[in-house]
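Risk register update: the risk of archive-format incompatibility is retired. Evidence:
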Amino acid sequence: MSNLLTNTKKQNLKNVLPTGIEAQSGDTLIYALGGLNEVGKNMYCFEHDDEIIVVDAGVMFPGENLLGVDYVIPDYTYLVRNAKKFKALVITHGHEDHIGGIPFLLQLVKPEKIYAPQFAKSLIERKFKEHRIVNTKIELIDHDSKIQTKHFVIGFFNTIHSIPDSLGVLINTVNGRIVETGDFKFDLTPVGTNSDYQKIAFMGSSGIDLLMSDSTNSSVEGFSISEKQVAQSLMEIFTRNNSTRIIVATFASNVYRVKQIIEAAIKNDRKIAIFGRSMERMVEIALKHNYFDFNSSSFIKANQLIHTPAAETCIICTGSQGEALAALSRIANGTHRQVKVHPGDTVIFSSNPIPGNTEKVSGVVNKL
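Archived output:
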């Protein structure tokens, strides 16, 4: 399936199908514009006669060899050339590799409808403001929603991921039933909504013709560490370092991890300062929609740090992957305007380095 769209500049899909395959009337076609054999720009298309349904529209962050490039996006040419067929864009969750491409897509072609769960909807609407996209409505979906078009009936189920309101997708067609899982993990003691295990089991017993599954870490033996276990480790670190300032770097997109860091700080009588644009945006949306149930008095602004004892502060920031412009990298370089690292500070990296980022992370550690 990875070479199903090798040249999207062709007018007809049959011209880009692998040799020996021709699209026939009544066929249901499935192809990826991104997301296969790569990490990022997830975008999966389901086409039947005069309808195209697209699941997710993400970006991929460039490697170090792509200097001056901010994002890598899929080639949207096929959708542009078949704009009348583009009935719906369905979003599984709010991570950039699933929603980051939407503003760029809408500059070229618009689906009849966009569907997204609440947290992703809020993030996308923020993007619309930044890109000055107007008159574009997003319809809210959850695990009980149902979308029906002429050729597709689409349902959803809850999954566990590091961001709230993550959904898997069940797509019913005349030619078979498809499950597109979105990103997920299994966690028997999760933070937030649990997976719909009964619903997943029922779908399996009812028969699925095609499973399109997240495969992140599928080659690693064992189970993912439960977020409850992470919470215990965080509490131990905070308790053990109760006389020093604590700086925690993690992914802004790992909303539940950020929530647990805040909880650990509050339980240890610390005020929280948030640094990094993406981190500030995530916390703001989480507070607005009650994913975080914290009193605003628990947070302080950057200019209040100098008036707050070090042992009573916790800084949560971006930069866990050694990104050059992220808050932690600037702190380590001594170029951050509000935060200077001091002897005795405790710095926590609450995430594993992504493959390829180990050297950058080590560079930040060495500077610290």
